[in-house]
Amino acid sequence: MPLKPVYYIYGTDGYLVEESLAKIRKEALSGPFASMNFHAFEGKGLDAGELVSTASTLPAFAEWRLVVVKGAEAIKAAEEKRLASYVANPSPSTCLVFMSNAAKLEKGSELVKALEEKGYLKACNRLRDAELLKWIRDESSRQGKSTSGEAARRLLEIAGNSLRDVKGELDKIILFIGDKPAIDEKDIEESGLECGEESVFGLSDAIGRKDLKEAMKAYRRLSDEEPIKVLGAVARQMRTLLRVKALLRKGTPAARIASVAGLFPRHAEDYVKRSRLFGEPELKAAILKLLAADTDLKSGRAPSATVLPRLIMELCGKAPGIVAR
Predict the structure, then answer these.
(1) Total Cβ atoms within 10 A of residue 55
(2) pTM check: above 0.90
């Protein structure tokens, strides 16, 4: 792919951000001098002068120099102003890549304006369910397999909406089925990927009843799972419950809930029943708290061992901040 001299890759899906960088790196760096032409910076405490000096240096015995700035959302405004000048006239032999986990950019920033004017921005936010389902089928095809619509939806129910988790679970299923050319729902059920789902349902149910004791029991049954995966599963259930709750409020017949909400018919009744444990404001507040916990885990600003227990306490109304039903 033809490289641009600057990229600013941002968004909430870390897998897409890293995948974009991997493609750029593969294109920019090759041969025995690759390591000499790669430089990494951190946005926090970045000295724009040092970065521009590095980016302005000709590559050694190669076509491109690759300079990567991680955590670009932490670059100070004064440094951004200097970088905006570079972006307006970048070195043609350097690929400068900024990486940020911000969902949106500050439109008033001089750097963002310069990047937008040159077409250097690339958004990598989390995909919607319909996009994830298409991604599952496309990725399966890329790996030489076909996936039925029901199997793709079932995988999404289990893995949640993090593309990294979806990719990880899809890879396990493809390994599980071996030479079989197509993935169906039975393959997913037999692969053992859904073993923790009932515990996640149990956790959601206990949260809905404000039963902290049972919620912590359900959480302990999930202790072998990665915290970010448990969080993703609970978040997905809460979003689905909110969608079901809204459909019921609008008078959608129970028989149509499954098709409208994209659920398996046999699971729709469970979601309708569980949605009655929550009020809509409560579900919306819970989703905001889940997003905050997601940031805590990924940024490391809180110990991972405390993030989920505290979240469960908040959702059960046992810690400050819970919104009453």
Answers:
(1) 23
(2) no
Rounded CA separation 68/55 (Å): 10
Euclidean distance between CA atoms 177 and 147, whole angstroms: 12
**152 vs 114: CA distance, rounded Å:** 40
Task: Give the amino acid at 199.
Answer: S
Q: Could you give the CA distance from residue 87 to residue 90 in angstroms, rounded to a whole number?
A: 5
Q: How far is it, in rounded angstroms, from Cα 293 to Cα 295?
A: 5
Find out whether 260 and 246 touch, Cβ atoms under 8 Å. no
Residue 15 identity: Y
Q: Does residue 72 come out as left (phi exceeding 0), alpha (psi in the -120 to 50 range) or beta?
A: alpha
* Tens-digit pLDDT profile for residues 249-278: 888 887 788 878 777 676 778 788 888 888
Looking at the DSSP assignment, which residues form a beta bridge with residue 146? 182
Q: How many CB atoms lie within 10 A of CB 253?
A: 9
